[in-house]
Amino acid sequence: MTVDLRDSRIAEVCRRYGVAELYLVDMIEAAVAATAFVREVDETAFLASDLIQSAVLQKLLVIGEVAGRVSPEIRARWPDVPWRSVTGFRNIAVHTYFEVD
Fold this sequence. Notes:
Blueprint: H1 9-17, H2 22-38, H3 43-48, H4 50-67, H5 72-77, H6 83-95
């Protein structure tokens, strides 16, 4: 699953803020993938599948890791994004993974 930079607002963000902001692309791609993993899966099937849970968790970890690398300028541009919560989730999931349910 990839984001087509030719057709998206991501291309504009990259032009405006620089290549370093490709982190946003990584976040969006991870979110698109996680969404695809659960698109046709109900809660019961999700809870029964370690494979799907692990795949979604991995994408959430990517989002959290990358969110921590986004520049302060970009964070300021989108103040409604809960940046600290996103990175905080990643830290909890990575460092206390045995408690993640």
